[in-house]
């Protein structure tokens, strides 16, 4: 039996939240996308576009009301809690805020060893793996005995990334993993993610509001607006020569160092806004 061409396949996905008074809000409207093994697909859009919701749906954390999600040819749309725990070996996540995603009362060594011990590793093997993980994310060996608060934001995100790759997952959901970092640290963390992808072969679903960041790391890009896909394609095409007015606005909102060009971009963005997004 041949392996499926797509590692992750999302087909006609709908996600609906229940609000107060029985009102319903449909966050995702029939979205379809696919990720091949070892590929990064960037999911980009402004706040409220639904990009994070798609990642949460893949992780089983959002109320899926329509469509289908397949991982490695298997339907995981509505798997049981037990099956979802089993999927943790293959699907992991890196969240936006590294501090809130790390237990502040645990040492970094214990944080990294925890998922390994849960999966049945011996303590000896788990902590040997921890030493290897710290080296792979370029943190010193003594980081194992320190608490998360003793690290900078960028270092904490490296710890979160190390935890995500600990079990050798095939897919990692990266939910705004660099948006809380300064520009220099962003670049370093992005390079680390690329380096790890090259050595592990993991695929990424990379969620971001920043078209420039998505361009740096992605092979293909999907642009979301109010729960709908408005543009999809190769990263170079979508991020450098966007066709949809909404994507063009995202492109024009990205900061540049040249003052004159920045003013021209702002003017162009205002012109696009007057046309409407759809």
Structure report:
This protein has one domain (8-232): P-loop containing nucleotide triphosphate hydrolases (Rossmann fold), CATH 3.40.50. 37% of the residues are buried. Mean pLDDT is 90; it is low at 256-262. Helix 5 runs parallel beside helix 6 and helix 9 packs antiparallel against helix 10. By secondary structure, the protein is of the alpha/beta class. The strands form two sheets. It has a six-stranded mixed beta sheet with strand order 6-7-8-3-9-10, with helices on both faces. Strands 2-1-4-5 form a four-stranded antiparallel beta sheet, covered by helices on one side. The chain has helices at 51-58, 81-87, 108-118, 123-136, 153-165, 183-200, 211-217, 235-240, 245-253, 259-275; strands at 8-18, 24-35, 40-44, 64-71, 74-75, 91-94, 171-175, 203-208, 220-225, 228-234.
Strand order of the largest sheet: 6-7-8-3-9-10
Largest sheet: 6 strands, mixed
Provide mean pLDDT, rounded.
90
Strand residues, percent = 15-25%
Secondary-structure arrangement, i.e. CATH architecture: 3-Layer(aba) Sandwich
What is the domain tally? 1
Q: Name the helicity range.
A: 25-40%
Overall geometry comes to: globular
Distance separating the two termini: 43 Å
Identify the CATH homologous superfamily. P-loop containing nucleotide triphosphate hydrolases
Please trace the helix and strand order, writing H or E for each element: EEEHEEHEHHHEHEHEEHHH
Low-confidence residue ranges: 256-262
- Assign the structural class, choosing from mainly alpha, mainly beta, alpha/beta, alpha+beta, or little secondary structure: alpha/beta
């Amino acid at each position: 039996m041949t392996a499926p061409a797509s590692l992750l396949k999302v087909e006609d996905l709908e996600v609906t939240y229940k609000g107060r008074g029985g009102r319903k809000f449909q966050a995702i409207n029939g979205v379809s996308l696919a990720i091949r093994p070892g590929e990064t697909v960037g999911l980009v859009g402004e706040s409220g576009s639904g990009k994070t919701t798609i990642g949460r749906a893949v992780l089983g954390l959002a109320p899926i009301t329509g469509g289908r999600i397949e991982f490695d040819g298997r339907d995981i749309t509505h798997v049981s809690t037990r099956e979802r725990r089993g999927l943790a070996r293959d699907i992991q996540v890196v969240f936006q805020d590294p501090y809130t995603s790390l237990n502040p009362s645990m040492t970094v060594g214990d944080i990294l060893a925890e998922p390994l011990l849960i999966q049945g590793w011996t303590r000896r093997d788990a902590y040997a793996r921890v030493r290897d993980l710290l080296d792979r994310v370029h943190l010193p060996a003594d980081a194992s005995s320190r608490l998360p608060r003793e690290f900078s934001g960028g270092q904490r995100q490296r710890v979160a990334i190390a935890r995500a790759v600990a079990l050798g997952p095939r897919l990692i959901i990266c939910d705004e993993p660099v948006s809380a970092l300064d520009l220099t640290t962003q670049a370093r963390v992005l390079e680390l993610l690329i380096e790890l992808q090259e050595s592990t072969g993991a695929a990424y679903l990379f969620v971001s509001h920043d078209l420039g960041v998505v361009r740096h790391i992605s092979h293909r890009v999907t642009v979301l607006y109010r729960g709908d896909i408005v543009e999809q394609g190769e990263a170079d095409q979508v991020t450098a020569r966007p066709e949809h007015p909404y994507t063009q606005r995202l492109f024009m909102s990205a900061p540049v160092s040249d003052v004159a060009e920045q003013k021209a971009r702002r003017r162009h963005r205002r012109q696009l806004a007057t046309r409407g997004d759809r």
